[in-house]
Give the backbone structure.
Amino acid sequence: MTTQSIFRDVVKAEGYRGLMKGFAPSVLLHAMFLGGYFVVYEGSKRAMLSTSETLSKRPFIAHILGGALAGSVVAGVTTPMDVSARAREAKPIKRPARLIRRCVFALI
């Protein structure tokens, strides 16, 4: 099984639209992950630097802990959505416009 054979099979079964089947949910999910990561990282880093004199002297520790906390929190929130998006990618498209609307409305 090669990339070309998978490409041909998808195009044959679902058309060129099938190649873009998971694009909208993936973009939304990555945007949520990166936005959430930035918010949690910056908030936790600032909180640690303002409350701890030890961390103020060694800010790299606050950066490391802030990154670890942000990654853990945001991954915990977005992983179930990621699993759902990947499961949708594996199913044939019946109503692509309806799927995109559901993804957008789920974020609002």
About this structure: Residues 21 and 89 are 6 Å apart (CA to CA). The chain has five helices and no strands.
